[in-house]
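>> received
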Amino acid sequence: MAAVMLTAVLSSCDQGKPGVDTANPETGLCHAVVTPEEFDASSEPSPPVPCAEPHTTQTFQVTTMPEPLAKQEARPNQQQLKAAGKRLCTSEDLRAYLSASSRDGTIGLAITSYFPDRDAWAAGSRAVRCDVAVTDHHGTPQEIGLDLKDALAGPHSAAVRLCYRQEYKDGILSDDGTDVPCSEPHTAEDVSAWIAQDASLATPAGREARCLPYALEFLGTEKLPAGVGVQPIIRTVGTAGTVRCAVASARQPAPGEAPELVTGTLAPQRVAVTGGAGKNG
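>> returned
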C-alpha cells in the first residue's frame, strides 16, 4: 500500500496552541490542519470539524506512549516523539480502519502522529493520536470531504484506490502507466498483487494467467464478469521489472480508437470490517 509517513522538515512547533486540549484525542474525528508546520508539529490542537466538510486529516487510531518515554517527567523532544509515532501509527492499523482487504491497493495516504503538548504531558497525558491525510503526487495533504472510516468497503473508495493511466500511441497501449487515484480517468485498476518479473511472465498471456486469481479475488467472483479483463502493468526500476496485476474494461476499441478512460472502481461494495478503535502502546 502507498502509505507513507509525513516527513517534512521538522518544525519548531513543539507546543500546542494555548487553550486547546491535546490530552484526550478521539478516533474518527477530522481536522483542518492548514500549514506545513502544523502537519509536522508534535502537537496538533485544531478543533475537530465534520468529516463531510473540507478537512485534511482524520484520526484513525488513538493509543498511548510506551515506556520508557512514558515515564519521563519532561516531555520528549520532537525527534523522539515522531520516532515513537512511526512505531505506533502503522499502515496495518490504517488498513484496518479503512476496512481494506488484501487485494485493495491504495494511493496518496500519508500517516502522521500527534502528542500531548507540554502542559498536557506535565498533567499526565500520554495519548498518541494517529492521523491519515490524502495527499497529491508531491505528498502534500489535500482537502477532502470524505469520511475515511471503512472507506474501502463503501461506495466512495475510488478517491483512495490505486489506478493506472496508460498511454496510447501508434495503436498500442503502453505496458506501464502513471499512478492515479481511481476517481481520476484511468485505463486499469490495481488489485494489490505485485510480482517480480521472470521468464514465466514474459508474454501477455503468461502475465494474465498469473494475475487472474488475484483479479477474481478482488472482484469477489469465480469468473471474470462480462466487460472486465485482466490488464497487468509492467513497472521497471533500473533493471528490475515488476508485474502489477490490474483489471480493466474488456471493451475492444475500434481500429485507430484509443481505449476508453474510465473513473470509479470495479471493486464490489462489501460489509465493513470495523477497526481503528484504539489500542494500548
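>> The first helix runs from residue 36 to 40.
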